[in-house]
Specification:
This protein is an alpha/beta fold. It has two domains: about 200 residues, Periplasmic binding protein-like II (D-Maltodextrin-Binding Protein, domain 2), CATH 3.40.190; about 90 residues, 3-Layer(aba) Sandwich (D-Maltodextrin-Binding Protein, domain 2). It has 15 helices and ten strands. The strands form two sheets. A five-stranded mixed sheet has the order 2-1-3-10-4. Helix 6 links the parallel strand 6 and strand 7. Helix 2 crosses helix 10 and helix 2 packs across helix 11. The longest helix has 20 residues. The protein starts with a helix and ends in a 13-residue tail after the last helix.
Length: about 375
């Protein structure tokens, strides 16, 4: 199997996470002077002196898609014991689930990672979701154009062919957002559904440009010697990207658990940014293919390229996990212009920054 095909399978990335909180200090056993009288021991059935240890709260967090180093902050939070420090026993669920947000909305799943735009679309359809903490600060989708295509600005897309995995998901949303930013309509380009074959399609010049992820396809193409230009969605439109989503009932009745999950995950995020090499090694335990000889170097590049996407001036000023109210407003306006949302959505109920802790920079 060719390298590009293997990497494409390994590096599928979705449509894209809470602040450090130290564990309890270790309890030291008190020493007893040899000459002192022994301390009376309570009878075994005397429960008044018994210590009750609370069981950790078990929950499932759906990360979606395949295990990948892009989820390093979550893996680090698990491996470093940050979830345990918060009294949580977190299980990760991978796999493409088309009704993932509906399952969370119905309480059949505890939590999921989803982008702000898809969460708003689901909420407009009556699914009671709430976004509780940002994982990606920048919408990671980019337009990738071959230098031979002559595409030097987004406006140059008019009359060109653009490959997308399909007319769905973050890459399709990203294409529409870029076209909108240049006052172009979808009819001004030829959008071709090519599956997850963006690298091959551009390398073989089957299309003029493709939609992909800043921390994925451009890295693969560079390794293949293909010269490209990238046009990030986040430079044109401030869409809310991936974060932790739960449902209204869980937030109202179990706020302490929601806050614990957000804090521990953001702690993992900051630790990943601080020491990406160590985070990579922890991620390999969850995504073994990332550590294989043929993938290791590229996957480390993927992790390195993800770190800038997890940070912004807004999060550095307000704390990891924070989302800007202006970004929510801009996301909703775009979704209405594009026709993705036709019903009213109350933004005040759609997201919260209450669990974000403002502290040291995430850098």
């Amino acid at each position: 199997m060719k390298l590009s095909r293997i990497l494409c399978l390994v590096l599928l990335i979705p449509a894209l996470l809470l602040v450090a909180c130290g564990g309890s200090p270790a309890t030291q056993r008190p020493t007893q002077d040899a000459a002192a009288a022994p301390t009376p021991v309570a009878p075994a059935d005397e429960t008044s002196a018994a210590t009750v240890v609370a069981e950790p709260a078990k929950l499932t967090l759906a990360l979606g898609y395949i295990p990948s180093v892009q989820f390093a902050p979550f893996y680090v939070a698990a491996e470093r014991g940050y979830y345990a420090d918060e009294g949580l026993d977190v299980s990760f669920q991978h796999g493409i689930e088309p009704d993932l947000l509906k399952l969370v909305g119905a309480g059949k799943l505890h939590y999921a990672v989803a982008s702000g735009d898809e969460m708003l679309v689901a909420r407009s359809q009556g699914v009671p979701l709430v976004y509780t903490g940002a994982y990606f600060q920048k919408y990671p989708v980019v337009l990738i154009a071959s230098e031979k295509s002559g595409i030097k600005t987004v406006s140059d897309l008019k009359g060109k062919s653009v490959g997308v995995p399909g007319l769905f998901g973050a890459t399709y949303t990203g294409l529409k957002a870029l076209l909108d930013s240049a006052d172009l309509k979808e009819a001004d380009v030829t959008a071709r559904s090519i599956g997850f074959t963006q690298v091959q399609a551009l390398q073989r010049e089957q299309v003029d440009a493709v939609m992909g992820y800043a921390n994925n396809e451009p890295l693969q193409l560079k390794r293949l010697g293909v010269s490209v230009r990238t046009f990030p969605v986040w430079e044109k439109t401030d869409l809310v990207s991936n974060g932790i989503v739960t449902n209204e009932a869980n937030l109202q009745g179990n706020a302490e658990e929601v806050g614990a999950l957000v804090r521990a995950t953001m702690r993992g995020l900051k630790e990943t940014i601080r020491d990406p090499e160590a985070a990579f090694e922890m991620s390999v335990q969850y995504a073994p293919e990332a550590g294989s000889a043929e993938n290791r170097d590229l996957q480390m590049e993927v992790l390195s390229a993800s770190i800038p996407l997890w940070q912004s001036e807004v999060s550095e000023a307000n704390g990891a996990g924070y989302t800007d109210p202006k970004a929510w407003e801009e996301t909703l306006r775009f979704l209405r212009r594009s026709g993705a949302i036709r019903n009213d959505v109350d933004l005040k109920s759609a997201y919260t920054n209450r669990f974000v802790e403002k502290d040291a920079t995430t850098r």
